[in-house]
Amino acid sequence: MALLHQHLTALPDPSAEEHAHSERLSALIRAEIARTGSIPFSRYMELALYAPGLGYYAAGTQKFGAAGDFVTAAESFPVFGRCLARAARGIVEQLPGSNILEAGAGSGKLAAALLNELAALGALPQTYFILELSADLRDRQATTVKEIAPDFVTRVRWLDRLPEPGFRGLVLANELLDAMPVERFKVDVDGVKQLGVTRRNDRFDWIEQPAPPTVVDRIEPLALAPGYVSEIGLAAEAWVRSIGERIEAGVLLLIDYGFPRTEFYHPDRATGTLMCHYRHRAHPDPLILPGLQDITAHVDFTAIAEAGADVGLELLGYTSQAAFLIGSGLDEFVRASDPSDVRAHLALTEQIKKLTLPHEMGELFKVCAFGRGTTKRPNAFALQDRRSRL
Fold first, then answer.
1. Dist CA 4 CA 22 (whole Å)
2. Would you say 276 and 285 are in contact if contact means Cβ atoms under 8 Å apart?
3. Percentage of residues of the chain with pLDDT beyond 90
4. What is the DSSP string of 240-256?
């Protein structure tokens, strides 16, 4: 605990306005805890990130880029979107009149990049849907598309709920599942405990409670050692099942950081994967700064593959981000780059290093694709296929 507090002292102090905002959300969480004495961590995470008008993703604060708390591939590396467009082209062309649905579109940069590149490839979707619950992010996405892809503004439509069954085309979720609420558990000598959140000494604190059967049934077969702490992404699994049921024909493409189950619950990963991001500083305490920091957990891709299978989706591919991008034509952009334009060529090579090197984003980030009613597997998985590891 002392080491944790030493780490936390390095975090920048929030402004007075940020303190007031966090206190309003804290009061909401305290009121819910007061009714029963504690709440599951998944509920705390849901409120901290998505409480209307107060949660991290529901309030109007800068989240992405240098002025925010973290960066994503879509925000920082234009070549990422261009590669994704190459992968999307095959899906759009295979299903004439199909659409693209991006869930959780961030600032809108990926949507704009995809639209511009797909237009250049002659493979524009009929409609580009963005599923976004935050009014602030919707406004920002609309502005971004208008600035970067003005010719395609009329093709973009926003949704505040999952589409009706019968969707045809590509569903894309880039760094979405990691931000969905997770159940947290601890293995004890007398069984599996669910970690909840309570109030103690005028602050939020952890509390151990008997775990529900949904958690016990998943964790007991893993035979984890006493003291092991980790997460289960039940909300992410439910989301995959829900969107999968709505796909009549097309592909669900998921990009996120995570592991197969054997690696996710590895003995060396005994404190779990939960991590928080505040002004480009990562730390492990989700119970401070509610509403001001991002809270994430890695994805158990084995569980995601099982969720897709539950609703009849076919697992088309699973691989590293590096292999997927190379399979999507990353080398073509390198060959087309002019080395005599030193600044542009250097910028491109730096992007590629960040996206593909194993110690950067290349290995930690994975790409997983499911399909229904499709006739061929995306070419992006031709370089490397890791489905047998799930």
1. 21
2. yes
3. 73
4. HHHHHHHEEEEEEEEEE
> What is 16-180+234-270+296-389's CATH topology?
Rossmann fold (3.40.50)
Cβ pair 98, 373 in contact under 8 A: no
**Of 331, 307, 314, 337, which Cα lies nearest the Cα of 380?**
331
d(CA 203, CA 288) in angstroms, rounded, equals 9
Beta bridge partners of 281: 278
pLDDT band at 69 (very low <50, low <70, confident <90, very high): very low
In which element (H, E) is residue 84 found?
A: helix 78-94
CA-to-CA distance for 251 and 171, rounded, in angstroms?
A: 6
Q: Please give the structure tokens belonging to residue 21.
A: 């905002």
Q: Are 49 and 292 in contact (CB under 8 A)?
A: no
- In the chain, where the domains are located: 16-180+234-270+296-389
Identify which of 117, 119, 114 has the alpha carbon closest to the alpha carbon of residue 101: 114
Write the single-letter amino acid at 199: R
What pLDDT does 111 receive? 95
Measured distance between the N- and C-terminal CA atoms of the chain, rounded to whole angstroms: 35
Query: In angstroms, rounded to a whole number, what is the distance separating the alpha carbons of residues 196 and 15?
Result: 29
Is residue 114 a contact partner of residue 144, using CB atoms and an 8 Å limit?
no
In angstroms, the CA 263 to CA 121 distance is: 38
Q: Per-residue pLDDT averaged across 44-51, rounded?
A: 96
Instruction: Judge whether 274 and 296 are in contact, CB under 8 Å.
Output: yes
Helix (H) or strand (E) holding 319: strand 314-320
**Residue 147, token pair as written in the block:** 């600035």
